[in-house]
Amino acid sequence: MDLTTPALACTVLTHGETGAILRALTPAHGLVAGYINGGRSRRLRPLLQPGNILQLHLHGRLDSQLARATAELIEPRAALITSGFAFAVLEWSTALTAAALPEAAPHPMLYAALDALTALLAADADAARIAATLARYELLLLAELGFAPDLSSCAATGATTDLAYVSPKSSQAVSRAAGLPYAARLLPLPAFLIAEAPAQLADARDALTLTRHFLARDILTGAAARLFAARDRLVTRLTAMDEPGPPG
2-79 in CATH: which number? Predict the structure, then answer.
């Protein structure tokens, strides 16, 4: 295998005394992995930070073997992130991508969405916009892997308007009228996930509650569930932003 491609760094694992295994998402080849000699060096560690855009060169004798890799920096995004919330989103979104996707399966829409999300983080966008973009990314990832909830019509009535909930069991939307008596047992469905609508912090938090349920049920099961610790940290930060401060 010989491949040269732009790539978005997702995770870096130490390998041996000086090397590292990089997993990165590419536009046309999906998730790829490669061993980088000296990846733990002072020169390469900043370059390989999750969120950075790289020019990645992969070479391997057999497709079944871990390729050797070299990388050059195209765009340094990780170093531009200044808030704890944005860093927590970066940590979670890149780890989720590396854990959820099979290697060498193209997901160009996911690459574009993760590229847009990390660009927002580097640009210091407001928290509501970042959280809403993260929720849309998680929903897209669920769809790409075949686990997206059906948000097109009400499970009880078939209605396609005023959809306000999602059934955690059937994975299908429920209208406000049909779901109101059972609201405590349903997941909230913020309007911005199904229509052009602004997203406030509370809406984004509701959207993350929705996507977390299906990620935990269908994607990050067993040992992989440990990754939710990073997600819980970002939701805690988001919740704190939406709480009123002490009286002046």
Answer: 2.40.50.140
**Residue 180 pLDDT greater than 60, yes or no:** yes
Domain with CATH 2.40.50.140 in the chain: 2-79
Q: How far apart are CA 6 and CA 25, in angstroms?
A: 9
Q: What is the pLDDT of residues 39-89, one digit of tens each?
A: 888 899 999 999 999 999 999 866 668 999 999 999 999 999 999 999 999
Distance CA 211, CA 135 (A): 7
Q: What is the pLDDT of residues 198-243, one digit of tens each?
A: 899 999 999 999 999 999 999 999 999 999 999 999 999 999 987 6
Residue 68's contacts (CB-CB under 8 Å, 6 or more residues apart) are 34, 35, 36, 37, 58, 59, 60
Do 220 and 228 contact (CB within 8 A), yes or no? yes
pLDDT of residue 170: 96
Which CA distances in Å does 240 have to 88, 131, 190?
14, 13, 20
In this prediction, residue 61 carries a pLDDT of: 65
Distance, CA of 94 to CA of 143 (rounded, Å): 17
Token readout for 199 is 């997203």
Q: How many Cβ atoms sit within 10 Å of the Cβ of residue 150?
A: 12
Contact assessment for residue 52 and residue 90, using Cβ atoms and an 8 Å cutoff = no
Report the alpha-carbon distance of residue 93 to residue 178 in Å, rounded.
Answer: 34
